[in-house]
Amino acid sequence: MPQPIDQPLRVPCTRMDIWNLIVTIGVIFQIAGVLVFVFNLLRSLVKGETAGSDPWDAWTLEWSTSSPPPEYNFAKIPVVKSRRPLWDIKHPEDPDWKYE
Fold first, then answer.
1. pLDDT-based confidence at residue 28 (cuts at 50, 70, 90)
2. Omega before residue 68 within 30° of 0, cis
3. How wide is the angle at C-alpha 13 spanned by C-alphas 7 and 16, nearest 5°?
4. Residue 89, helix vs strand vs coil
5. What's the pLDDT at 85?
6. What per-residue confidence (pLDDT) applies to 92?
7. Which residues fall within 8 angstroms of residue 66, CB to CB, at 6 or more apart?
């Protein structure tokens, strides 16, 4: 497509140059973040250990069953006395329901 006669080939736009620089620096950080994520993902797939049923020492009942859970989940319905029922089961000497 031919260029119009009265328009120069490159129009300098100094107001947008700083924003282009900021966006370019942001893209570099995004690429670095994605590379770190992919490296961690691949390393975890190759050398990572398998997580157990409760890897975070959680407080709620869904972490007390095995993974994948059995069809019935619990042999009997657990008694819930506090917001942290699994903590109460794991630490009977210091149950959470005493502090509520």
1. very high
2. yes
3. 145
4. helix
5. 85
6. 82
7. 53
